């Protein structure tokens, strides 16, 4: 079970209200309070519903062989000190080294009488995320076991489709998660901690709950029904017995249920499962941009309200955004007429837009609002996206940069890029800007994570090549009444990123 760590607090208020003007109690009398009054619409029992649905919910167990890391020979380090490297283990190099058996436990549910089963991808994904487990065993409520085949999986949505050989199997139907309301009753059936079929009940606590702030599937149904490790892949049912969600995650400071369980909505899952059943990869819209939220300092540096829109950090050449003319530093405000907010991110809106459709995108560029028409592309596979992304490297220069022409504004010491600095930082010949030679640990720059060796490429979207350029941009921001400046920063081979730095700290 995937889970995120969080902290939740609740305050319960009860008792009779009291009129401050008359002293008359506004509550019911004591005799009425002692009577048990059913809540309108609440079921008197979940027993019949649970008995009908439980046979279609299955336990899923997986096994795979994983390599065992060879323990370091105490003499290896001794010989390394003298430049002697130990001979490689030929078995490990050939993949024939020692292994051990690892496994996982989770849940799933049958969606057809011939044995198609929906579950979470992370249950059947191999170590490292690039492969699958060696064996998947499905156990029914009557303890009948089947070996399952993996029909398809989709890491982006964390969904997978399995198949067992059977006929006239019990199965459940999809429901309409778009009609679910906060406060509706639900039940969850699954395999928490490997205990076997377990039923929990609760209500829908929230809809479209985001926990990562990015991606096409960061929109969960939240419930207070107990969801624990092992419930992953199990169904969330409405009171008609239809599947409205797939239990996938929980928020907890301990890893155990604290009443914040999360399920993938059925409306998001159905297209993915249907595509996997056809042997296809699910299609998702794609712009080809890296984005940043508009936090308070970045928004102030741009003269825009915070939490309204997203900043384009980089544009991928040859993709939809580049073809439409989007640029680094543009702020995307709306997608096809829908405002971009923390609850409706660019990633979410575009991923759920039909591939090939042309839509209007409102942006702010250099303080002016304009509309760009973009033909939405198809999102590449996760492997292709990972290849596009550069990994961050720690700054570890061969020699110390010269400390000439320092500037202490913003709590940073800055210097131009001369040949010695370029060599020390291993910068490409086309990189221009100024280098952070030191950071005051008590400064706003330090709070935002800037550090020695970072390269400042622009300030308030003006390219800088000298310390004087930085000072001029800061002076212009102060003259305009801005309380922060927006800097484009490059670190090692990591993608460039915008950082808002507060002035006058």
UniProtKB/TrEMBL annotation:
Residues 273-349, 410-492 form the PDZ domain. It comes from the Bacteria. Residues 1-19 form the signal peptide. Residues 84-105 are annotated as: Disordered. It holds the Pfam family PDZ_6. Keywords: Signal. InterPro entries: PDZ, PDZ_6, Pept_S1C_Do. PANTHER family: PERIPLASMIC SERINE ENDOPROTEASE DEGP-LIKE-RELATED, SERINE PROTEASE FAMILY S1C HTRA-RELATED. This is Do family serine endopeptidase.
